[in-house]
Design brief:
With about 110 residues, the chain is mostly beta strands. It contains no helices and 9 strands.
Length: about 110
C-alpha cells in the first residue's frame, strides 16, 4: 500500500498540535500520523487511550512526555510507547511520527482531569 500526503487527513488540535493522519491498515491493525507540535497536548488534563498503543518517534525538536506521573525527555531519534490505559501529556516543540496500534478511534481516546 502506498499513500501520498494528499491521501492523509489533516488535523489540528487546540494547544499547538497539528499533522496528518494516514489511512489505516485494511484490517485496522495500525495507523500512522505525522505530528508537529508547539505547545501542549492535551491543553488541560491528560489523555488516555483505552485500546491503542501509541508509539511516538521524535524526528526533530524536543518533547517532554509525562506518562503516569513520570517525565521522559525525548530528543531526535528517541521513541516512547504509551500503552493502553496509561495517562499522558506531551509538551514541547517537535516533529514526530506516531504509530497507533490498532488503528486510532476517537471513541477510545478520552481527556481526563487527573
Amino acid at each position: 500500500m502506498y499513500f501520498e500526503q494528499k491521501n492523509a487527513q489533516e488535523f489540528e488540535i487546540p494547544g499547538g498540535t497539528k499533522g496528518y493522519l494516514y489511512p489505516a491498515h485494511p484490517q485496522g491493525e495500525q495507523q500512522i500520523a505525522m505530528v508537529e507540535m508547539d505547545g501542549v497536548y492535551p491543553e488541560k488534563g491528560y489523555s488516555i487511550n483505552s485500546v491503542c498503543t501509541e508509539t511516538i518517534f521524535l524526528l526533530e525538536g524536543q518533547l517532554t512526555v509525562e506518562v503516569d506521573g513520570q517525565d521522559y525527555n525525548l530528543r531526535p531519534n528517541d521513541m516512547i510507547m504509551i500503552l493502553p490505559g496509561q495517562k499522558y501529556k506531551v509538551t514541547g516543540k517537535g516533529k514526530s511520527i506516531d504509530l497507533i496500534s490498532p488503528s486510532w478511534d476517537k471513541n477510545q481516546n478520552k481527556i481526563i482531569d487527573q
